[in-house]
Amino acid sequence: MGVFVITKRNDDRYKFEFVSRKGKTIFTSNSYELRFECEEDIEKLKELLPEAVFMKFKTSSGKFYFRLIIDKKEMATSRKYTTQLLMQRGIDEIVRSAGTSELLDFSVNDFVFPEIEAFQD
């Protein structure tokens, strides 16, 4: 089962990713100014998943990706896949498990380990 992960981008805006049970990012959302906007869009995505549209594309270098559209709004863009089959597996994982996936919030960048200098006396 996949999981939604909220993190911060380098510009301090929020994003969420849907990560597969194997730890691979399937898609990444657009940027959000506030964390609760991420949470709202995740809930909206879970609720409206049956109506979601997956627009599929191919890059000039031959990679495949999709964009997730809900209510005529682009919610996320997938990672690049080497084959159409792998891309379809990513979509299948979303359809199968996104509706019941957990939410992990890593947006608070508190470093859990003390600085090395603290131990050097």
Which features characterize this protein?
121 residues, alpha+beta, PH-domain like, 7 strands, 23% helix, globular, YegP family protein
What does it look like?
The chain is globular. Helix content is 23%, strand content 33%. The protein has a 7-stranded mixed beta sheet. It has helices at 35-48, 84-97; strands spanning 3-8, 14-19, 25-29, 53-58, 64-70, 73-78, 102-105.
Distance between the termini: 46 Å
Show unreliable segments.
none
| Strand order within the widest beta sheet | 4-5-6-3-2-1-7
Task: Tally the structural domains.
Answer: 1
Provide the gyration radius in Å. 16 Å
Q: Summarize this, please?
A:
This protein is an alpha+beta fold. It has two helices and seven strands, in the order E-E-E-H-E-E-E-H-E.
SSE layout and pairing:
Blueprint: E1 3-8, E2 14-19, E3 25-29, H1 35-48, E4 53-58, E5 64-70, E6 73-78, H2 84-97, E7 102-105
Protein name: YegP family protein
